[in-house]
Batch of 2 targets.
Target 1
Amino acid sequence: MGGTHRDRIRFNVGGRIFETTATTLANAGRNSFFGAIFDDNWDVPSDGGGLSQSQELFIDRNPDCFAVLLDLLRTGDLNIPLNVSEKSLYREASFYGILDHVRAAKWGQFDGNRLRLSRSVSGRAPGDGTAIRAGPDGGCCVAHGSIVHVYDWMLEEHPPLNLDHQRVNDVGFIDSENIVITACERLGTLDGGMGLFSSTTGELRYKFEVNHSNSPENKDRDKGTKKGFTAGALCLNPDDYRIFSSCRGRSNEYGIGVWDQVTGKQMDFFYESPGWSLGDADKLQWLGGVYNCLLVATLFPRKDNCYISLLDFRIRDMVWSWSDIGGPLTLTIVDEKRVRDAVAMEEANSICVVNENEDLGFMDLRMMGSRSSSTIRWSSRIRFMKGLMPDEPCYPKLAVHGGQLFSSMNDCISVFCGSDWVLTSRLKRGYGGSICDFSIGGDRLFALHSEENVFDIWEAPPPPIII
């Protein structure tokens, strides 16, 4: 039996009466609180859907916040009066299942050329931070020494994650509730390695263990023995719930470990070959689509030379590689010309690298399978650098998001677009020191400065409301 079509709906929220339409409430979406009131056709179900005999639905919640959220569903615009705190509004929006609508009204879809500095947050610990990582919902986390500070999308800090003097090497969000942390091993213990933590409480949910029973050196011994290890660069594959991390064992057991995100069980281990570097990797990046490979980059100054490779775990082989060993950079020993970061750009079929001068270089990935090193095609950006060098310059970083290329250099971030990667905008503020790391996610860009762990939040303004 079908429901009753009734476009006008009345709510009694905390004693205040609101009247709206089913059309307006439908803007909240099927998975919202309001979607549960109606049937699939957004009609009141035959049992009344919770409506009283007076044709009102009573909700024992904050009426002031409800008024703001109802106006958001009507107009798409978010206007918060002075008598309503943002924290209360976000709590109510979460109850009604329309938090995404609030976020979309506060900042727009990510576009590097439209970003504006939203705010800056001062960290708790002085000195250089290790890393900053964006969360999927607009929050972030900052690693400093052995502590990871976690912030939700409202930039309220959760209890910090303290690894008891084990230095954090990398960190990543599985989702808004779970964080993976890699850390250095402490000698004489099995501490270190990698663990899954609650982002809200800091609770350690489980540790990722590794054994080397299938390695060439341990084929007939130590079968199933748990080994201590240092976990480094981290990469999460959202397509099949795998976690990758560079690993260094005590007995020269260097390589890339693979674990299941759900169970925490080790799935594979790719051992580095003599003369190459995997276990000391600075960066891991998963390439999906036609590639289905893992980018592994070990860069100067962690190593005297740079090693970049693509690993195919389906055939357990290195299918593409590049190194500056024996090249002109090795002979000239000019540090500022060495590769400092690398990022794969799947749509462009290339890998981008950057040196100390923010010169961008590109290597063609279409040579995959040849096992021959590609040549870097450099594109000088030094003409864009103006002003004085900061007192504490940081190494440049690269990221790709939404078809745009981002490169940090000293105290600003450059945005490059188009097939020729033309410089289109720069993100910079007046203080904070050099940018030691940045991350993009949840439609935000987070930039961590070396001075006092200050980090900036850059957002694109929401689109204009068309009346």
Target 2
Amino acid sequence: ARNMAAARRHKRVAASQPGFLRLKPDLDHSASRIGHKKRVNKNKKKNWNKYSDIQDVEEFLEDVRLQERATGGLLSDKSDDGLFFVDVGEQKVRPDPGAVEKKGKGLKPLRIDLILQPDSQVPPPKDILAYQQPNARKLRLMAQKAEKLAAMGVLPRRERLLQRRRIPGSEKPVANNDPARAFYDLWRPDQGCDVFSDPPPRWQRPEKLNVKPSLLPAVEVAAPGASYNPDFTSHQALLLEAHETEVAKLKAEEKLARQLAVRKEDLATEESVFREQVEGLIEEEEEKLEAEEDDEGTAVGPTAQTEKKTEKQRKREKADRVKLQKKAERKAIDSRQQLFQLRTISAELRRREQQTSVRRTRRKDQQEREKVQPRRLGKLRFQAPDLDVQLSDELSGSLRTLKPEGSILKDRFKSLQKRNLIEPRERAKFKRKFKVKYVEKREFREIQ
């Protein structure tokens, strides 16, 4: 306790001396001694940042960053030669092509060149994306495996194939453009194979891979009204097309709103609310009577076996047997009558074949129409881009004053989707993992 009191007394004496700078001049020590300090439980994590004073840590880190920007590292790590130099007279300045030489003075760089020079000694951060390589781990493992096989004396497959393609009696391999070289079609294994010693493959290229997924051209020619100086008719036709597209969108939105709207007939009334509240509380008498009749009509135990059928039940069973017998007789008569209906049956078959051919033709036409339409390749549907059209007052008539419309990159991306080469996609939603921390720099704080 005596040591702590002596330390506090020493601090008060030092603070009373003239020229002493406080760390926090706006802090009122007398008020802090009179008032009671708020007690905070710092064992809880939520109170660490709220009631922890890290100002000294921030100032220390800002000082370290300032030293790195100014000298390229900490001053404590620098040697004396890097911090001081011996002034032995005038220093020779390296001539600069942009420097200006004045009378009686040496070469001095221009002010604009000094402004453009970087004022920070910290090297720029490394671009990680420039060093990343797709399938880097796979390629590294393949290279390690190739080195291991080379150490064992095993040649790669490409080298073995090159050695097999050598002409007997010659040291140089056969060139690919040599007409004397034997030719082997990879997709026609029925041909003879004298180039490779391995047997030809037993598979063929599927014909479906030779068919384009869409008959649309890669680059669609824009309408004549989209020109920078179109004629009146073409421009009005393009405006009408854009107008019809917007009207269709508005109708679709209104239809969706009508379908989602609540009808007045579906709104709850006082009577329906009361019926729902009392439902299940009042048992109907009819249900009770039906339950009692079922209990009386069903027999339990040995009485069910000894109970005799009533006259009514026997008559019903006899009527059912007669009905089944008549049905079987009618079926036999119909089968005999079909022998005399050959013309009718043949006409029915011709009619069905005609209907089948019509449906086949319709199906083929539908498939041909689908070849020029975007298909459903993923969970999203293809959304046609908006027409790039300019109003009549926006037409410039000159390429110099032309206002650019649309984007070439988006147009190519939509073209790939429309031709069924890629599935329709939407931009991934960016979600920040950590909150952005705004730090007030030391230079800005000093200016204030």
